[in-house]
Specification:
67% of the residues lie in helices and 0% in strands. α3 crosses α9, α4 packs across α9 and α7 packs across α9. It has 9 helices and no strands. The protein folds into 2 domains: 47 residues; 105 residues, AhpD-like (Up-down Bundle), CATH 1.20.1290.10. By secondary structure, the protein is mainly α. The chain starts with 13 loop residues before the first helix and ends with a helix.
Length: 175
């Protein structure tokens, strides 16, 4: 049970209802995170913009690596709801069940390149409260693996997004 009164469809603003309708038609329900965000239209649309820009739009990082970041950061933050949601999204994007389980076992269990492992480990470190301790050399190491500034910024932005959404989910006890 959420620690705050979530918005039901009828209580949402018309602009949010417009976004909710296709989800309701497709899935039959709205998740608790959607209902929480719908409490404030500005928060909803700011978050929706991040989801579209970072996760759903085609970007410089593959959907596979973006979902790996989503799953790893959500696991790191103890956000079971987000892990469950992103298992489903990863499957929808073509990530296999085996790959999802590898990711959830941790970076060293993932069958991928050393470059991707380095990026994922960097994202986990960036998700911590002491991320201010990250050194230029650590970013340069990612560049030596072939990652561009754009890819590194994107990976850290996705990491930050998951810290944000995991915090909302955890604070308000969403399931």
């Amino acid at each position: 049970m959420a620690h705050i009164q979530l918005r039901e469809f009828e209580e949402m603003t018309p602009a949010i209802q417009e976004k909710a309708k296709p989800i309701l038609e497709k899935t039959g329900n709205l998740g608790e995170i959607f209902k929480l965000l719908a409490i404030d239209e500005k928060v909803y649309f700011a978050t929706d913009g991040m989801v579209q820009g970072f996760l759903l739009d085609e970007t410089t990082l593959s959907y596979d690596i973006k979902e790996a970041i989503a799953l790893l950061i959500s696991k790191e933050n103890g956000c079971k709801m987000c892990i469950d949601v992103h298992k489903g999204i990863a499957k929808m994007l073509g990530v296999t069940e085996e790959r999802i389980e590898e990711i959830l076992e941790g970076v060293d269990s993932i069958h991928t390149s050393e470059a991707e492992k380095a990026l994922l480990k960097f994202c986990i470190k960036a998700s911590k409260k002491d991320s201010y301790k990250i050194q230029k050399e650590e970013i340069n190491a990612l560049k030596e693996y072939g990652f561009s500034d754009v890819q590194i910024v994107e990976a850290v932005a996705i990491t930050g997004y998951f810290n944000y959404i995991n915090t909302l989910s955890n604070v308000f006890a969403l399931s």
